[in-house]
């Protein structure tokens, strides 16, 4: 399982967000360049439709591949009341032949994206990862060098943390508490819940840029 929230920030404020994250996390950022392919299979012989994502890490000297299957979100009154989405997630490293393998199983390419940005990995009550990236679409099949932004001037921010059925409550608290520190720059909510940019972002960014971000947890 994983706990996840998302938000957006204007590209002009990303440097300020990086300064804030550096101060909060106490670790250096990692560069991010991920080619993401979304594959879908239709209902066949009684088998339900399925969707998987192949992620190719282009920042590595030799690109590495990961397959990810995102399952359903936790449901019920309790799930609706918490500010973080809790969902099942299965992920595994695969070889560069994975795309060919899924094609042979009947999967078809639905869409592909290129995510470019940075990530912070740290421990603050849970193993939290914050990614900040521009989401780009391909004009030609697999043409990552010709990718263009889906939403120019806007970047996606995602906060995730692994969880289990035994500890997800504690992880939700850790993620929610951390997100409060980012509130002046952006609002983070469950994926699919659009909140837009926050009106305090410009002033918060200016303050961070002037003092260099001395905040620590």
From TrEMBL:
<dbReference type="GO" id="GO:0006369">
    <property type="term" value="P:termination of RNA polymerase II transcription"/>
</dbReference>
<comment type="similarity">
    <text>Belongs to the Mediator complex subunit 18 family.</text>
</comment>
<keyword id="KW-0010">Activator</keyword>
<keyword id="KW-0805">Transcription regulation</keyword>
<dbReference type="GO" id="GO:0070847">
    <property type="term" value="C:core mediator complex"/>
</dbReference>
<dbReference type="Pfam" id="PF09637">
    <property type="entry name" value="Med18"/>
</dbReference>
<protein>
    <recommendedName>
        <fullName>Mediator of RNA polymerase II transcription subunit 18</fullName>
    </recommendedName>
</protein>
<dbReference type="GO" id="GO:0003712">
    <property type="term" value="F:transcription coregulator activity"/>
</dbReference>
<dbReference type="GO" id="GO:0016592">
    <property type="term" value="C:mediator complex"/>
</dbReference>
<comment type="subunit">
    <text>Component of the Mediator complex.</text>
</comment>
<comment type="function">
    <text>Component of the Mediator complex, a coactivator involved in the regulated transcription of nearly all RNA polymerase II-dependent genes. Mediator functions as a bridge to convey information from gene-specific regulatory proteins to the basal RNA polymerase II transcription machinery. Mediator is recruited to promoters by direct interactions with regulatory proteins and serves as a scaffold for the assembly of a functional preinitiation complex with RNA polymerase II and the general transcription factors.</text>
</comment>
<keyword id="KW-0804">Transcription</keyword>
<keyword id="KW-0539">Nucleus</keyword>
<dbReference type="InterPro" id="IPR019095">
    <property type="entry name" value="Mediator_Med18"/>
</dbReference>
<dbReference type="GO" id="GO:0006357">
    <property type="term" value="P:regulation of transcription by RNA polymerase II"/>
</dbReference>
């Amino acid at each position: 399982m994983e706990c996840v929230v998302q938000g957006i920030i204007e590209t002009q404020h990303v440097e300020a967000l990086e300064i804030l994250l550096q101060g909060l996390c106490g670790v250096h950022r990692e560069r991010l360049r991920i080619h993401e392919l979304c594959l879908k299979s239709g209902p066949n012989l009684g088998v339900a439709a399925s969707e998987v994502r192949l992620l190719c890490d282009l920042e590595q000297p030799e690109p590495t591949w990961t397959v990810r299957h995102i399952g359903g979100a936790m449901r019920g009154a309790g799930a609706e009341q918490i500010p973080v989405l809790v969902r099942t997630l299965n992920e595994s490293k695969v070889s560069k032949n994975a795309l060919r393998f899924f094609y042979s199983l009947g999967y078809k390419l639905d869409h592909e994206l290129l995510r470019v940005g940075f990530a912070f990995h740290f421990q603050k009550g849970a193993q939290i990862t914050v990614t900040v990236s521009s989401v780009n679409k391909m004009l030609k099949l697999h043409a990552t060098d010709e990718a263009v932004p889906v939403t120019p001037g806007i970047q996606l921010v995602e906060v995730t943390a692994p969880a289990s059925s035994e500890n997800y409550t504690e992880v939700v608290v850790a993620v929610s508490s951390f997100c409060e520190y980012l509130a002046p720059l952006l609002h983070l909510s469950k994926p699919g819940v659009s909140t837009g940019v926050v009106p305090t972002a410009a002033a918060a960014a200016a303050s961070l840029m002037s003092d260099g971000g001395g905040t620590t947890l």
